[in-house]
Amino acid sequence: MPNSGKNIGFVSLGCPKNLVDSERILSRLRAEGYDLIGSYEEADLVIVNTCGFIDSAVEESLEAIGEALQENGKVIVTGCLGKDESRIRTAYPKVLAVTGPHAYEEVVEAVHDQIPAPHDPFTSLLPPEGIKLTPRHYAYLKISEGCNHSCSFCIIPDLRGSLVSRPFGDVMLEAERLVESGVRELLVVSQDTSAYGVDLKYRPDFWQGRPVSSKLKDLAAAMGELQAWVRMHYVYPYPHVDDLIPLMADGHILPYLDMPLQHGNLRVLKQMRRPAATEKVLSRIARWRRSCPELTLRSTFIVGFPGETEAEFEDLLAFLQEAQLDRVGCFAYSPVDGAAANQLPGALPLEVREERQARFMQVQAEISRQRLQAKVGREMVVLIDEVNQKQLIARSSADAPEIDGRVFIPGGWELEPGDFIKVKITAATAHDLQAEPIEVEETEVD
Ligand code: SF4
Question: What is the mean pLDDT of residues 160-176?
Answer without folding.
Answer: 92
